[in-house]
Amino acid sequence: MSDIVISAKDLGLTFQTGDGPIHALKDVNLDVRQGDFVSFIGPSGCGKTTFLRVMADLEQPTAGTITVNGTSPEEARRARAYGYVFQAAGLYPWRTIGGNIRLPLEIMGYSRDEQARRTADVLELVELGGFEKKYPWQLSGGMQQRASIARALAFDADLLLMDEPFGALDEIVRDHLNEQLLKLWDRTGKTICFVTHSIPEAVYLSTRIVVMSPRPGRIADVIESPLPRERPLDIRDSREFIEIAHRVRDGLRAGHGDD
Amino acid sequence: MGWLLGAVAAWLIGWQINSRLARRPLSRATAFAGPVIFGLTVILIWECLVRGLDISPVLLPPPSQIIQTFGASLPLLWRDFVQTVVKGALTGYVLGCSAAVLLAVAIDRFPFLKRGLLPVGSFMAALPIIGLAPILVMWFGFDWQSKAAVVVVMVFFPMLVNTVEGLSDTGAMQRDLMRTYAAGYWKTLFKLRLPAAMPFIFNGLKIATTLALIGAIVAEFFGSPTKGMGFRISISVGQLAMDLVWAEIVVAAIAGSAFYGAIALLEKTLTFWHPSQRGRM
């Protein structure tokens, strides 16, 4: 088995709207390897979220091919190959935190014991032990988002797709969650695709940074990060970090040059 | 003259007590006492005015007489209550509401039903009950079955519309989430859409409680066995026995409030998570 998890070739997606076609993605070529932490960064309208949704079989490409685990995105979705974290936590208010995390497990037919064990495990992983019986609306936004990550982790898919999961949170909570996410990635060895519009977040988290530009949505630059796997928060003051951040910014600016 | 002064006194005293209560911090006791005192004051004034102005009991009997009649005809009232509320209204309510929910699920599943059946539903809702009731009495006989049928017709539409509305009240993200789990139609229905529709369903259920009671009582005006609240009201009016009419109204008021209260209580326990209920836990 190859270690390529996601492979996109000449991928394109055009939305037909009343104002004419919108090229959300055009000629996108990218391979994501097993264990990669890939960030997608770019201004709004660059197709980063659309790309993630295509991987998850929530949107259908109109050109090119994409495979997830060597199969079509639909087969991957049916095989429950990935966990998806949305921009908002989207927890069901009628279920407790534990109940929300059990939701995918119930749907996928895990036994009761297994549900309880996995729920306890992932709650521990996102440091929400003891909050199992609380309702989502009794928790802060950051805790809700952590619970939604736990929910995506519960069925232990090897691939994690995250769409600006920390976009709505304040800087301090965000730093903390970034740190936790890195630890989790390091511990579990999962492949993570992460959409963001924050340069420091992308540089801090990723092994590879995919810079995208809009109209049509396309890849402007792919940056391999030389940073080590072990990343304390203050690595953000290092010279290497700042250099990568510069390169990302340059890529973003180049993409913006045409408007 | 003494009775009229009594009416004024009752008004002033009730007013005094309640305005004093209103100035005290809100607690369970004051929140409960306010409406009770208001109600008692209204009844006292009513009693005094009817007696003081010597109003004919045919126009308005005094509350004391209504209470007396109520106490004296308890077995009769109970029999009417069972006939009208338990057999007619409740049966029709359960049948009508569950049929509406099932049909709403079907309508939601097959959009062509939505185009075909929703207009039929609104047509049924537009039918006047006094036109419909005699027909249903002809079809289903004089006993409670025809009353239940009238209730079914009355509660069906509000229940249907509310449930259809509720089933479409899920966000795109919540549906996407179920899709990423590769959850099928039924799992999505039971784990996401029905729970999300609960506040809407309870809205329908609450509206339907009052409609069910009205339907069951009014339908009895068009033929019924010699029992039932509607039957009793129409007979007693003919006999100018207004105290018994009023006693039946008291029964209807108590039954209606209890019915509505029970559904509201159930709503509070089942949709405690909804923002409209959260503050009241």
From TrEMBL, chain A:
It comes from the Bacteria. It holds the Pfam family ABC_tran. Residues 6-235 form the ABC transporter domain. The keyword ATP-binding applies. Keywords: ATP-binding, Nucleotide-binding, Transport. One of its GO terms (molecular function) is ATP binding. PROSITE patterns: ABC_TRANSPORTER_1, ABC_TRANSPORTER_2. SUPFAM superfamilies: P-loop containing nucleoside triphosphate hydrolases. The keyword Lyase does not apply. Belongs to the ABC transporter superfamily. PANTHER family: ALIPHATIC SULFONATES IMPORT ATP-BINDING PROTEIN SSUB, TAURINE IMPORT ATP-BINDING PROTEIN-RELATED. This is Sulfonate ABC transporter ATP-binding protein.
TrEMBL record, chain B:
Its main location: membrane. It is found in: Cell membrane. It is a multi-pass membrane protein. GO terms for biological process: transmembrane transport. The chain crosses the membrane at residues 29-46, 90-108, 120-142, 148-168, 200-224, 244-266. It comes from the Bacteria. The keyword DNA-binding does not apply. Keywords: Cell membrane, Membrane, Transmembrane, Transmembrane helix, Transport. SUPFAM superfamilies: MetI-like (SSF161098). The keyword Transmembrane helix applies. GO terms for cellular component: plasma membrane. Residues 95-269 form the ABC transmembrane type-1 domain. This is ABC transporter permease. It comes from Pelagivirga sediminicola.
